[in-house]
């Protein structure tokens, strides 16, 4: 049971990562590869600030770090006309070294100043209760941010960003600054991803260079799983489905490990598990489509 509580807790922590990926991939319609770098940048920034005793200020620092990363990628795309994929790779590669410089080493422990640890100490709880309280705290933060993001995309600026992703040429004809909308969207996306990195680091009590490895795949998997469950009906539902996909993804991985689906190597085959989950999620909608097309053809033959 504890395995699944931890999985759901981590699902909410990584839910902000899924939100960021959804914004760039679905709303802006850009395959942004900055995510792994910005996730680590947020983790590093939060660790440095929190280690100085400024626990809650570290989250603001992490978000701003992600915003800067997103702005750099956006400027590369809009002002220097670099291809979106290459722009993301350039920023991500640069952030790898920057993250090492920010920490001063490959990892940094700040468990004493962790927001979760301070919460547990203040409430005087231990054992399984830590997991439950941590789950409630993670869910509260994720849901609060989710609501704010949904409300933002109903504002004028939010609608401009959505329109830019739908049809940039049409938006230009409407006298909307496409470059600004694109840069702002990428800044928000990477800010949320960096905030997710900060939350994960506070949850673990340390920041490590390896934390960001595979975050892009995780975010994509969460978005795809969420869309497979809820469909693609609206932006609000899409944002909710991204968080839901993060939860489902983590629960599936926990189940694979819990039942030792791959035997004693279950934990060692995490990457394979992730790849299989993504592959299956991509295949299922296509199978449904083929079945539906087959039924339509049969009905057409009967009516002919």
Written description of the protein model:
By secondary structure, this protein is an all-alpha fold. 78% of the residues lie in helices and 2% in strands. The chain has helices at residues 2-13, 15-27, 35-51, 57-78, 84-103, 115-123, 128-152, 156-166, 168-173, 178-204, 215-230, 235-258, 270-303; strands at residues 107-109, 206-208. The longest helix is centred in the last third of the chain and has 34 residues, at 270-303. The model has no long low-confidence stretch (mean pLDDT 88).
Order of helices and strands: HHHHHEHHHHHEHHH
Strand line-up of the largest beta sheet: 1-2
Whole-number radius of gyration? 20 Å
User: How is the main sheet built?
Assistant: 2 strands, antiparallel
Q: Report the total helices.
A: 13
Oligomer: single chain
Q: Helical proportion?
A: over 70%
Query: Overall 3D geometry?
Result: globular
Low-confidence stretches: none
In percent, how much strand structure appears in the residues? under 5%
């Amino acid at each position: 049971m504890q395995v699944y509580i931890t999985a759901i807790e981590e699902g909410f922590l990584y839910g902000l990562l899924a939100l960021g990926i959804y914004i760039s991939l679905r709303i802006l319609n850009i395959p942004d590869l900055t995510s792994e770098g910005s996730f680590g940048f947020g983790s590093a920034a939060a660790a440095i600030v929190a280690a100085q005793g400024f626990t809650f200020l570290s989250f603001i620092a992490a978000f701003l770090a992600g915003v800067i990363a997103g702005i750099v990628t956006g400027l590369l795309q809009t002002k220097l006309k670099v291809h979106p994929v290459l722009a993301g790779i350039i920023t991500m590669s640069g952030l790898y070294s920057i993250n090492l410089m920010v920490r001063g080493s490959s990892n940094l422990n700040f468990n004493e100043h962790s927001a979760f640890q301070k919460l547990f100490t203040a409430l005087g709880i231990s054992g399984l209760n830590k997991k439950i309280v941590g789950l409630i705290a993670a869910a509260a933060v994720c849901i609060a941010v989710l609501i704010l993001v949904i409300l933002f995309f109903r504002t004028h600026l939010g609608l401009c960003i959505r329109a830019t992703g739908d049809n940039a040429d049409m938006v230009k004809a409407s006298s909307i600054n496409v470059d600004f909308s694109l840069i702002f969207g990428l800044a928000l996306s990477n800010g949320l991803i960096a905030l997710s990195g900060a939350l994960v680091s506070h949850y673990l009590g340390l920041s490590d260079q390896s934390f960001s490895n595979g975050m892009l795949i995780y975010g994509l998997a969460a978005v795809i799983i969420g869309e497979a469950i809820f469909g693609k009906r609206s932006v609000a539902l899409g944002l909710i489905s991204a968080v839901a996909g993060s939860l489902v993804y983590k629960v599936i991985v926990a189940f694979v490990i819990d039942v030792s689906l791959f035997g004693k190597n279950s934990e060692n085959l995490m990457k394979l598990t992730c790849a299989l989950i993504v592959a299956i999620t991509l295949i299922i909608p296509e199978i449904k489509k083929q079945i539906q097309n087959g039924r339509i053809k049969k009905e057409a033959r009967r009516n002919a």
